[in-house]
Structures are given as structure tokens and as C-alpha cells.
Amino acid sequence: MVLATPSFAPFYARVLDVAVPRLRRTAVLNLKRAGFADASEITDGVFRSIGRLIQTFARFPSLNPKTIHELIRYEGLENFTNAIARGKGVLVATAHLGNWELSAFAHAWMTGPMNIVVRPLDNPKIDALIEQRRAMSGNNIISKREAARGILRALQHGEAVGILIDQNTTPEEGVFIDFFGIKACAGTAFVKFAHRTAAAVVPGFALWEQGERRYVLRFYPEIEITGDVQADTQRVHSALEAVIRKYPDQWLWIHRRWKTRPPGEPAIY
Length: 269
Prior knowledge:
Blueprint: H1 9-19, H2 21-33, H3 39-59, E1 72-75, H4 77-84, E2 90-94, H5 100-110, E3 115-118, H6 124-134, E4 140-143, H7 147-156, E5 160-164, E6 174-179, E7 182-187, H8 189-197, E8 200-209, E9 214-219, H9 229-246
Parallel strand pairs: 1-9, 2-5, 2-8, 3-4, 3-5
Antiparallel strand pairs: 6-7, 8-9
Helix pairs in contact: 1-3, 2-3
């Protein structure tokens, strides 16, 4: 339990920063290419954000529906509840921004369980431990390896499904969109699920507010989905970019997001 106290968050941040130096190099490179002048300072914040996430995740076993409000509150919940009330299901467009582990975990207790799509870790024992913690508040875990069937079933039953949309992918699985002024390969499965089921698409992120010393789970207005894969994928990522620009030190810039390049373009990393 000691390792779950807030005082350990800076420790986790520092260990990760020192132990894997390429992460800082990647973050600074990404930030500079995205047009941020204070790349090094923002990267410091990125590691602090990751440290808070790790510390909070370690605290999950000690939390309950009564204490969860100490860590997080809502803003814009009506954007989610209005969408779910239509009965077609909701695709929550989320990302490695703020505290993506806490967002779904807390939402299950504060409003109701949802489905979350996760990529299994390579180590089965660690993966089992993490999945057990993710499900503690009642959420259903859908493995990315078998995601399509589980996602469609949940949406057809009018349920909510949270999906991380911000990772690099291959041209076979995505399309190139504009993300921070740089071409990025983005997966298309997310919007295709919306096209197939008529589910609402609502962005949602748990963002740290330093003044309150807790997170705010913000649900943003529903994104209009037109049926055009390219345009809708761009629209979803433009909404994500707008939020990241407000909280740049809370996004996972250490990820090689722009690794896949359009034909003929040189490698970035």
C-alpha cells in the first residue's frame, strides 16, 4: 500500500525516465515535429503524468465506490448519458492521455460498467494481474486479439465500449490522416464499428487538474459520423488533437506515433 501513496508518483516517473532514455528522446522529437517549442519541459510533465497513473493504478485494490470521488469527478457526463440513452451503444474514443486506466475504472462505479478493449501483455502473469485490477469495479475486458465480435455484441446490446485510438498502425489496418500537421497512420476499425452499428462516438478522457489535485473525467460532445472512413477517422483524431493541445504534458509522446510513413517518405525514428 505504501507504493500506492501519491508521494511515490515522482519516484515512478524518475525511474522510467532514467531507466529507458530512448523514451525521452522520442518524446522530445515528437513534440518538436508537432511544433511545440518547450519540448523538454513538456516531456518532464509527460513522465510526471505517467508516474501519477502508475501510482493510481497501484491504489486500485484499496478503492471503493465511496472513496473513488477523492480521485476523480465528472464534467460533461450528459454527453455520454444522452448518447447511451438512444440505445445504439456508445464508442468512447479515448487515448493514452491523462489517466486512461482510472477513467473506465471510476466510470464503472460512478455511472455503470462498460467494455474496454485492451492489448494483452506478452507476460501472461503480469497480464493476468493487470486485467484483474482493471475489472475490479465491474468492467468487462475485451481482448484486442478477439475484439471485433465482443465489440459488436456489446454495441448491439446498447452498451458502451472504450477504445484507445491513438496508436500507430500499419497501412493495411488504417489510413493516413493529419495529426499535429504530420501524416499519421490511424486505424479505421473504430469508425467502421460506428458505421456498422450506428453507435454514437463520444470522446472521453480523465485529465489531471493540478488545482484540484484530482482528475476530471471529461466527456466531450458527440462526434458526427458520416459514413466516410477517411473523413470520419480524421474527424475523430482532430477532436483528440484539440484536447491534447490543451493538456500536452498528459499525452504519451514517448510512443512512436508517426513510425508508419506514407510511401516514399523517410523514416522519422
